[in-house]
Input
Amino acid sequence: MSQKPSAIPEITRREAAQVAGAVALSAPFISRVKAANNQIQYAVIGTGGRGRYHLDHWRKVDGGRCVAICDVDDEAIKKALEVAPDKPQTYKDYRELLGRKDIDAVQIATPLYTHFPITRDAMMAGKHVFCEKSLVFKPEEVHALRALCAERPKQTMQVGLQRRYSEFYQTARQMVQKGMIGEVTNVYTQWNRVGLGKTWTPPSWRCFKKYSGGLVGELASHQIDIADWMFDATPEFVTGVGGIDYYKDGRDIYDNCQLIFKYPKGQKLMGSYISTNKHLAMFQGTRTEFGEMIMGTQGTIEITVGTDNEPAIGVWYYEPGPKVEKAGEGKEKAAAATASLTSTGKGGRPLPILLSKDQMSDADSFLAKEMKFAKRWLYGKGIMTPEEPKNPVDTQLESFLECIRTGKKPVADLEIGLNDSTAVILANLAMDEGRRVFFNEMEKMGKTPEPAKAGAAAKKA
Ligand SMILES: NC(=O)c1ccc[n+]([C@@H]2O[C@H](COP(=O)([O-])OP(=O)(O)OC[C@H]3O[C@@H](n4cnc5c(N)ncnc54)[C@H](O)[C@@H]3O)[C@@H](O)[C@H]2O)c1
Output
């Protein structure tokens, strides 16, 4: 696997701005699957860690055929062929691959700084695109990709934010919508590690701002998306503190970040990303590193995705409390509410998040109901935990093919991806500049000409 940045040229603002204009000249839309056997023919571009993980998971998915893979690194190609389904043809230059008319779709799992140019070229070659998170890297790419996709509505654009495809997270979202944990006021997220490991060691692209969004782009991006989803909003501003505090090895991305995002109704997302301690104070200490806590006025959800070795976990705590009085509702009422809120009391027991397969239904037979009761009892005693029926990574791959076939909007679609990338870009800017960065600043960013180029253009004229 190549860890070094590849030789793909950097995109300039001017090039990004030209994208929308060039769209009209590019290849026509495809709306039908090209293979005679009705299999969607796809290619994977970038066969490093993530690309290979996907190839392995593609093997479990019906309805598609992997006809090509591409990586600039021979070793990455070699390793990918060991796990890839369908004996794909190999390429070193993705443009050559995009020239193949029989390819319907591409999945992009290359370093962040290459996502936009490859996605742009793939869209313009008429392919459906699944691009890993974080979708784009620079403000100008946010605007350019939005414009490009608006011109090509028949092409699927899906982003690799797999938590959106998890039944646990979908159930948590329904619980929030039904008011089961009251009004959601805060989300706390953590993705702390002990040591950052080989993939985070120079010269890996991940270690340099020129190529990477650092811990925010690689880790926080998943969790910011969860907060957006649970709050049903995007942030108003972000502030944060980042430091290169422990890894003095030439990297210029932070190894220690604390972020706070404020959402329009006053809700906050607080996220911690450190590299010196992985303890996670959730799930009764049974997991480490990453998880999200969704905190409402009547309860809290603790949730995380599974890995290849660990199951997903979703529990919640019911905390019936006094109604939180809003400012201006009367001094006496507010004082009474505050008094009862400040007593600590005893903590609650975690309750399992019940997935649809565990919910009672009128259609269930007597036996099925008895089984569900028994399972729930075991969940309640902590003897058994609910398990997600499918890895959300598999669900997102299946869903990608389904969206291509039906024209359905992906669950993790372009706007979700762009909102997520915007948050990554602005959170890094907030730490770099040590200020509150407002999300509406993005409207102007990447649209004005770069000063040096504007000067040169004026001279020429
Ligand atoms: N959704 C998730 O949970 C998840 C998990 C891991 C990684 N990712 C994302 O996947 C992407 C790749 O991450 P990774 O861990 O696989 O990185 P990696 O460094 O292991 O692999 C990237 C691969 O892309 C190749 N590459 C670079 N430029 C290329 C180009 N122009 N054409 C073809 N190949 C090129 C490299 O040679 C390398 O093999 C990143 O955006 C990362 O954030 C997502």
Notes: Residues 414-433 form the longest helix (20 residues). The pocket of nicotinamide-adenine-dinucleotide is lined by residues 1-3, 6, 8, 45-51, 70-73, 76, 94, 109-112, 114, 132-133, 160, 162, 218 (CB under 6 Å). The chain has a mean pLDDT of 87. The radius of gyration is 24 Å.
